[in-house]
Amino acid sequence: MITLALVSNAWSQKKNAAASNEPAYYTPATTPIFNPFPNVTDKKRWLVRNLGPVGIGIMLVRPGMTMQINNVEIGSPAEATGKLQKGQIIESINGKVLKEVDPRIILGDIVTEAEAKDGKVVLKIQGAGDVTVGIPVMGSYSKTWPVNCPKSDKIVRNLADLIAKQDQPKWGSVIFLLSTGEEKDLDVVKRWMKGIKNYAGMNWDRGYKGPGLCEYYLRTGDQSVLPVIKQMTEELRVNMFSGGWSGRAGPAAFTYSVGTGQVHASGVNCMSFLLMAKLCGVEVDKYMFDETFSQFYRFAGHGNVAYGNTLPEGGFRDSGKTSGLAFGLGIDRVLARGVNHRRRPKADGGKGPDKIENAKDTIQLLDGGKVAKSKFFGGYFWSGDMLIGVNDDQALKMEVRKVGGRDFLIIERGGFNAVPDTEEAATARVSKDWHCGYHVYVRQ
After folding, report:
1. pLDDT tens per residue, range 33-69
2. What's the rounded Cα separation, in Å, for the pair 155 and 135?
3. Do 230 and 367 fall within a single domain?
4. Is residue 246 domain-shared with residue 281, that is, in the same domain?
5. The domain spanning residue 110 has which CATH number?
């Protein structure tokens, strides 16, 4: 074991020494944490799929970060030159070479500068000289981009117009068009949704297209899509395996990926869809929901969501799984707060939805805010600063607030503003009973 350790250490030192002769592109402060990145010491080539609107893909090959044209897109400005083809070596772009900084940043800055000036991107091709590609002039980004930024607005508009040409929506199409806030984009989505019956063919579709379907309902109130949402939740119920899903139709795929029967890259978004379905008022099978939420919640804050039913992966590399979990937990938070704009409790003169005659023994707190006993709220569980109703998704927001120098436990019921702002208002409405040093406030 000692000999192996010495050999391994010697090889590591030799490898590091060789790498030190290569140009460095990252410092400890600039090394990406959440995503993979091209490095000069990588053995594999790195593909930059699109050089913005130029219309070429660039393969970064060793030694160094040599730029090689990987493909020329049909109908692109690059193809229009008639001089560019796969395999050509790019020595520089607008006089710049890849060195000292993440190559993706350098390439992005080149496109940004060209869009802000004359739209010229000059590729110096090995053995062929300069080739000038003309791209649209878009102007510069504002200091507040992407908001209050004409260039950002143009980019969004261009993509929206391209998506609007689709006969049927692809992954993300519905959500993107709804996000613009423009009526003509909403009209496109309405066209897609007219007479819709079967919206998803496999679990990937349910996870990536389902949230858009729910967003459409929440935006328009079009109840014709509710049966489709319900149908998709039932399809997930049939296909679920151990709280997750494989990417394609069957309930488990043991011969794919890590062999646990699940593909979390699709499954975590299926969970998010189920949460959004609940937000739309669609009944979701309780066992399925509890199982999948337990499966994915365990990854929260513990690294990257694994590709299958295994331990969390190191770091927070995304690939859609970790951000998908963040999205899902965000929806859960909305559900917990009872913010369902299609099922909000109606105001009743400030009395609140439930009248509690006596607050004695209603609730007690332990150190750290954990619920110890609950007489009137037995069907609730603790989540952050909320008591969540297990059966009806109703939330009770609880907060300890100082009013007039005294501490009060505030219970906010059903979305009503029950927090007293003055000492007089507080003392007029609090119980006379003390629980763990706090007054209990309830709406009478």
Report:
1. 767 788 877 778 899 999 999 999 999 997 778 999 9
2. 13
3. no
4. yes
5. 2.30.42.10
Which of 303 and 351 is assigned the larger pLDDT?
303
Residue 405 to residues 146, 367, 422, 426, 436, Cα–Cα distance (Å): 44, 20, 10, 12, 17
Greatest mean pLDDT range, 29-33, 63-67, 336-340, 418-422:
63-67
Domain residue limits at 411: 363-441
Which residues, other chains included, contact 54 with Cβ-Cβ below 8 Å and sequence gap of 6+? 76, 77, 78, 111, 121, 133, 135
Residue 443 CB coordination number (10 Å): 17
Which of 134, 158, 174 is the last residue before a domain boundary?
134
* Alpha carbons 332 and 279: distance in angstroms, whole number: 9
Looking at the domain assignment, is residue 13 inside a domain? no
User: Is there a single domain that holds both residue 70 and residue 99?
Assistant: yes
305 pLDDT exceeds 60?
Answer: yes
Residue 27 lies in a domain: no
Q: Is 390 in contact with 382 (CB distance < 8 Å)?
A: no
Backbone dihedral region of 383: left (phi > 0), alpha (psi from -120 to 50 degrees) or beta?
A: beta
Looking at mean pLDDT, say which of 190-199, 247-256, 314-323 comes out highest: 190-199
Residue (of 154, 232, 167, 155) closest to 200 by Cα position = 232
Question: Which residue, among 150, 87, 140, has the nearest Cα to 111 in the 3D structure?
Answer: 140
Is the pTM value of this prediction over 0.85? no
How many whole angstroms separate alpha carbon 109 and alpha carbon 97?
Answer: 12
Considering the domain architecture, whether residues 297 and 404 belong to the same structural domain is answered as no
Helix or strand (DSSP H, E) at 371: strand 371-374
For residue 323, give the nearest of 291, 300, 290 by alpha carbon: 300
**Residue 353 counted as domain residue:** no
DSSP alpha helices (H): ranges in 146-263? 150-163, 173-179, 183-193, 203-220, 226-239
Give the pLDDT confidence of 145-158 residue by residue, as tens digits. 988 999 999 999 99
How many distinct structural domains can be found in the chain?
3
Strand partners, 125: 90, 129
Judge if 164 and 291 occupy the same domain. Answer: yes
Q: Average pLDDT of the chain?
A: 74
pLDDT given at position 368: 39
Does 274 share its domain with 377?
no
Distance of CA 90 to the CA centre of its chain: 35
Boundary residue ending a domain (134, 168, 194): 134
Instruction: Examine the domain organization and report whether 313 and 376 are in the same domain.
Output: no
Per-residue pLDDT for 285 more than 90?
A: yes
**Residue 104, domain member (yes or no):** yes
Q: Do 167 and 308 share a domain, yes or no?
A: yes
